[in-house]
Amino acid sequence: MSVLDDFQQWKGFLSERVGQAKGLGMDDNSIQDIAYELGDYLAKDVQPQNEQEMLLRDLWKVAGPEEQKMMAELMVKMVSDGKQ
Predict the structure, then answer these.
(1) Record's superkingdom (predicted)?
(2) CB neighbour list of residue 60: distance below 8 Å, 6 or more residues apart
(3) Average pLDDT, the chain
(4) pTM (2 d.p.)
């Protein structure tokens, strides 16, 4: 089973990766930049596996670059604050 099959698993996976990045000394801006790049890749090249991912992809596609960056920041914040 892929982490993309279940949204809760995806958030857990993302939370672990953010924690690892912070543990390696990455600052929030660098983590958010990577999240933006990942969001762009997922929206363009990966088929959504559930309703939540479909919604995120659709929002990403209609958002401008600044809005996409905000979405990436919010995803990082959501998994960083433990509000999964």
Answers:
(1) Bacteria
(2) 39, 40, 42, 43, 68, 71
(3) 88
(4) 0.81
